[in-house]
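Before relying on records like the one below, remember that each one covers exactly one chain. Contacts with other chains, cofactors or solvent are not represented anywhere in the record.
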Amino acid sequence: MYAGTSPVASEPAGERFLTVNQVATMWSLSAVAIRRLFLSEPGVLVIGQRQMGRRKRVYRTLRIPESAVERVRMRLSNRG
């Protein structure tokens, strides 16, 4: 892959990535709620198949960078 084409190229080097369960525990939310919040968030690593065809369960693993956690937290806390 060339420089600048990576979807996480703008993330700082050495940034810590968290699991869905870690974020769910930190925020006292369910893993399902965290997946919904972060699935389409920029910088989140989605590992696995995006589409497996009809009637097949989609298995994905998310790794959420700390910067994305902070960005979503700020976005949600600024809602009136």
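Confidence is low (pLDDT under 50) at residues 1-9.
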